[in-house]
Specification:
It contains 15 helices and eight strands. By secondary structure, it is of the alpha/beta class. The termini are far apart.
Length: 365
């Protein structure tokens, strides 16, 4: 909260000449009146998105407080001015207003609206109402930060929705035609891709990560980087997946920020409990069966995984040795989400095979 907001407002009209009726004063008051309305309207849009779109009470309270402060400083002399001079641009709209279709566009446009309106108030109130000018400046700088945070939270909410709504998670393997395989899988309807890096230089890895990220973005899918936090950041991945021997989750979250997804591999109750306490977004649990990808890992088995996950309330994906021919068995045991590597990476027709697996997971024939 800006430092001057809670100070006692003494002699609010001291610097105002309420008897002034000259045209310049009326124009200034009219400008302030219009922009106070504009700022409060924009703040209400942000407040309602924080409340209903994100469910973030902390932001609702902050933004509501800004609206109330501006309302208390919307003096009668400003309101009365709006009827004195005709506004020749009343009702003017712009094509860009029609083009706003996403929550992010609405957040950005209304944040900009608030910031611009507050800047106008700051300038035109400075000569006669220094207190309002200062308030406008302080709120304006707060909104710069809130805009970024609301956009980050909106992005995270989209990622969380994809995790919840999609049951097939694909992990890449090194292939000469990897981008072609990934696009085929995305066309089939897969919405979560995790990329594992094998041989090659970091320069090559980053180039490949950016290419996959762009593909995933085109198909409205999550791009998760395995292990490499630096490449996840540099490629603007949607998140990172960490093993038990990788960077700890708290450090990863601190560096990535809260707009990104962090997944954890776990195969016992302690690791799962720690992952939940540290705020992971999903868990990969396995291996379920023997797998060539993790030859040194002993399979946990279906029954053990059922025990480990019976009270789990975040998305989790069974992984390890899962193929098209054992998905029905997993489904009958209550497994809803699976992660695959070789089944699609080695497929002669990855698009068709992905479609068939998605149908099995959704119980379609």
């Amino acid at each position: 909260m800006p430092s001057g907001f809670l100070k006692t407002k003494k002699n609010k009209l001291q610097m105002l000449n309420s008897n002034s009726t000259n045209t310049e004063d009326l124009r200034n008051y009219q400008i302030i009146d219009a922009n106070l309305d504009r700022a409060r309207e924009g703040l209400r849009v942000l407040e309602d998105w924080a409340r209903f779109g994100l469910g973030k009470r902390r932001y609702v309270e902050r933004i509501k407080n800004f609206r109330q402060i501006l309302g208390k400083n919307h003096l009668e002399i400003y309101k009365q001015s709006r009827n004195h001079i005709e506004d020749i641009s009343k009702g003017l709209t712009h094509q860009e207003q029609i083009n706003r279709k996403t929550a992010e566009q609405i957040i950005s446009s209304n944040s900009g609206r608030v910031q611009e309106a507050l800047r106008v108030i700051e300038e035109f109130s400075r000569p006669h109402n220094h207190e309002l000018s200062k308030i406008a400046s302080e709120i304006r700088y707060e909104i710069y930060t809130i805009e970024v945070e609301l956009l980050s939270l909106s992005k995270r909410k989209k990622s969380e929705k994809i995790l919840v709504e999609n049951d097939l998670y694909i992990i890449t393997d090194q292939k000469d035609n990897l981008l072609e395989i990934i696009e085929e899988i995305l066309i089939a309807g897969v919405r979560i891709i995790q990329h594992r890096f094998k041989t090659g230089t970091d320069k090559d890895h980053l180039k490949e990560a950016i290419q996959i990220k762009n593909l995933c973005k085109r198909y409205n899918s999550l791009f998760i980087v395995n292990d490499r936090l630096d490449i996840a950041l540099a490629s603007d991945a949607d998140g990172i997946h960490l093993g038990q021997d990788d960077l700890d989750l708290k450090t990863a979250r601190k560096l990535l920020g809260y707009s990104k997804i962090v997944g954890i591999s776990a195969n016992n109750a302690i690791d799962i409990s720690n992952a939940l306490k540290e705020g992971c977004d999903y868990i990969g649990i396995g291996p379920v069966f023997e797998t060539t990808t993790k030859k040194n890992k002993k399979p946990i088995g279906i029954e053990n995984i059922k025990t480990l996950t019976k009270d789990l309330n975040i998305p989790w994906f069974a992984i390890g040795g899962i193929k098209s021919n054992n998905i029905s068995n997993l489904k009958s045991n209550g497994f809803k989400k699976v992660a695959l590597v070789s089944e699609l990476m080695n497929s002669e027709d990855p698009q068709e095979d992905a479609i068939m697996i998605l149908k099995k997971l959704s119980n379609e024939n």
